[in-house]
Automatic annotation (TrEMBL):
GO terms for molecular function: efflux transmembrane transporter activity. Residues 290-348 form the Multidrug resistance protein MdtA-like C-terminal permuted SH3 domain. This is Multidrug resistance protein MdtA. The keyword Zinc does not apply. Belongs to the membrane fusion protein (MFP) (TC 8.A.1) family. GO terms for cellular component: efflux pump complex. Residues 1-29 form the signal peptide. Residues 142-169 form a coiled coil. It comes from the Bacteria.
Amino acid sequence: MTCGKALIRFGRSLGLLAAFLGCVGTASIAQDQSTTNTAVSKTITVPLTVAVSATNDVQRVFVGRLEPLRVVDLAFQISGQILELPVSAGEGLKKGELIARLDITDFELALARAQASFDLATSEFKRSAELANRGAGSEARLDTAKAQLAQSEVALREAERRLAQTRIEAPFDALVGRIFSEAYSNTTPAAPIVRLQDVSEMRVYISLPEEIAALARTRAEDFSITATFPAAPRYEAELILREFVTEADPVAQTYVVEFAIAGELDFRLLPGMTANVVARLEGSGGTGSVVIPVSAIDTTSAPEPRVWIFDESNGTVRPRTVRLGLPRENAIVVLEGLAAGQRVVSGGWWKLTDGMNIRPDVH
């Protein structure tokens, strides 16, 4: 009886042990399957594209506006009647030429009064100084005469200055853009008389989108910029970068770039005319430039752009820094860092890591 009970207990123990071993085996298999699934999940599917050789120079055309080097509105600093206004709109002026003159009668009379007061004060000062040196005059009288002389000298200089302000002369070689007043009319201080345009150097203004503005600012030497003008057929001018406005237009998100026209200016061109600006960016030597989709550029690698190159020998991808050129619709030119025929990831690069295995998307 005792032996029977012992055998029953032994049998139950064997059953429990077998059940335990089964659970352990099942857990081990599940863990192996999970590890296998994790390894498989690290291989992701991404689209690939082939870099194509850029056989032609890349260029973009922009509409620009021709403007003078500077525009100045000239005005009298005193009130008076305009007696002479010998200029007309569109006329060219040399530096120092007369533009407008006021009636000087009142100002000449004021200068004569100031000169007379100055002469009287000078004489009075000399007499007071002579008397003081001989002990016949007081120091107080000498001080008063000295103060009156100083005041009369200031009044004389002011009268001379006001007389000089009755003339407006060209401060530089200029083109008369507009006339605001007429001869024999009365004018007041700061009321504009004429508008002058400095055409010693003509400027061309264009607005660049942000992706091209970044290239133009950092690699201006790689660009060849020329301009043609509808108003001057068969005339083409080379442009030189002068200024780059770093504040973007709040609506269009573009940047204003200012160029100067190099060489001789065509006489047919006037401020405000339209210019067709052509920006060319030539490929560099070596392997040559290539074209890839814009979507292949890894934008998370700022400030240096990069692409993910697919290695067909082992099915992995690695990042590579590239130098970009101008965009072409939905594609962009790569000047350095990539050769024609290489395959790059064209989408989903934000999920990649260096050396990761990927599966090309065949669709």
